[in-house]
Description:
A: six-stranded mixed sheet
Amino acid sequence: QKEVEQDPGPLSVPEGAIVSLNCTYSNSAFQYFMWYRQYSRKGPELLMYTYSSGNKEDGRFTAQVDKSSKYISLFIRDSQPSDSATYLCAMKTDSWGKLQFGAGTQVVVTP
Amino acid sequence: DVKVTQSSRYLVKRTGEKVFLECVQDMDHENMFWYRQDPGLGLRLIYFSYDVKMKEKGDIPEGYSVSREKKERFSLILESASTNQTSMYLCASSNYPLGGIDTDTQYFGPGTRLTVL
């Protein structure tokens, strides 16, 4: 079983809709949680970085961590066609730990 | 802006060839990483380095080696390429995690798509 599970999609939504992405994990020692965005033919870039449980908001993006359920989410409000990309969750146990990535969810926002 | 560059965007090699993938970062980062990315499997860590001339095995080091002679450059070597090494290879760099979260953010290069025939 993979340590980090993520639905590969594709997830297709109309422009303006809320995009909801999530990952589940099995290692309860994970404390640092990240979301990366990867456009086609590019490397991943960091979107959100959170520590432990709770919510973090940055513009149209909200990251949530529920450590009791071993579940993290990313919400994108007012989605735009430019949000079409693959979104990868990543996590690690401590600041020096190795990142474990989910497989990535492909999101398509249609005009 | 952090810049991580990789020597080739696309590479085609034959089985048994020795393959070098080069990565250079311009932000004086201590840490450098090599990942491979395959559909349905996400990014998997091959090797990483915390300092010049240091290297550590990641989760899938078999069939690979690395070299870090200078701080800004990290090379991935496939000693004898095989078809199961056909993949997207991504290099990343980061600082030491010495002050608050996200100071150790990994910055990725554009990737090298390697095909082994």
